[in-house]
Amino acid sequence: MATGVRGKEKLSEDAITANRVVSSKNISLPSPEAQVTLTYPEKLDEKAVLSEQPSELVEIARNGLSTGHTEVNPNSFILADNLHALATIKSTIHRASLVYLDPPYGTGMEFQSRGLKHAYKDDKGSARYLEFMRRRLILIRECMADDASLYLHIGHQMLFHLKVILDEVFGETNFQNLIVRRKCSSKNFTRNRYPNLNDYILFYSKSSNFKWNRPEKCPEEAWIEKEYPKVDSRGRYKLVPVHAPGTRNGDTGKPWRNMLPPPGKHWQFSPSKLDEYDKNGEIHWSRNGNPRRKVYLLSDKTLPFTDYWSDFRDAHHQSIRITGYPTEKNLNMLKVIVSSATNPGDIVLDPFCGSGTTLHAAHILGRRWIGIDESFTAAEACVNRLRNGMQPMS
User: Which among 184, 112, 124, 203 has a CA at the least distance from the CA of 157?
Assistant: First the structure.
């Protein structure tokens, strides 16, 4: 298993490569501070992107009457090109604590709803796609509060390109995680390559000081049986050592029950505390007299989420409620993201909101929301979802 140390610690030079030149021409490597950027035609200067002017919006009421607006209020769905909508939001006082976006993946495909209505085309090509996304990400950054987070959901096609773009826009140090999400079951077989079962979420913050409510979940039965394999009248438990690495000169380095800790180690607890554990039946003695502590499974035991999410697959059986919009994401996944990055009352922004899953999750959790999409099919699905709910997949 590979191990490492922090870059600020003093290290010895590599024996072979220290101070070595790259070639006979003495061309040196870039400095450690040099940044990586992508170059392609028509890459607009950031100042030019930020000069995008707010647009006047038209509010359409339930009765069909319309009024002009230049202000975007929370709990709004905007049918517009999100470039113009984001420029308008940027000019207001509202700032998002979370931006989740599930943009086109750069697949080259066209998408329809379950009712065969056109949703959107995903056919921009690499350079055009990247500049399309970069301009919007710059505006998104300006719509975010200083303690906000961004979750960009993407497929393998443009994952690595967008990682470089996000490093450029938000800074490499504000990258927090690459989350792998299992999107479907193992039936996705191919003849000449591995099955494509996952998509990805790039998690960035706007600054080093961002909101973080650590998401946790209940452990599965298989995990419980593996980690807590033993059972007695008090419940499930596991055995753990009562010593730890390192020598100590205090109580934890003294003898207990006429035993010293193993060489190079110390007791995890003072001898008096170990006596207390033993009196309560929480020390297990092996046949050769080796003590280990019993750790019991608590009824409220939870586990933190890792960067592999296997519990949030796309709709895969007939009872799941959906809108029928293509690429619709798992509602429970969005609940986890919203709750981890925001507090009640915060604003959640989704610039490619599609069927409105992010807005739905935000509403359930007591957050305010702003959704944007330019697709009429998305607008229909999103508004219908927020007004009338969803229907079973069948």
Answer: 124
